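Model it.
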Amino acid sequence: MELPDILLLKLSVQRGMLGRVTGNLAAVCASLSERSIIVKMYFFNDMAEDEYDDLDSMGGEILADFAEGYTIDMQFEPIGKFSQSSAEALLFMRGEAEKIVG
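Modeled.
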């Protein structure tokens, strides 16, 4: 059984987050438009270099779940810039972040 692409994206991001969620990670959204994947990760504070490297490598794991020809854009933002469009799936949000973004 083949999964719809948006469901595959949600599951892939969730799996990619396993073991990578630090106390600094506030929220994660993802979207899929044609063959372009966008994963937005929001943080409470500036990211440490090792945190950035670990989460950036997650993009390769997500991309590997999709057919050839897909691209991925991993975006890292402070929680103060949080915005979620109707095309994005909210996949993770800490309670503390919800209080900040309302």
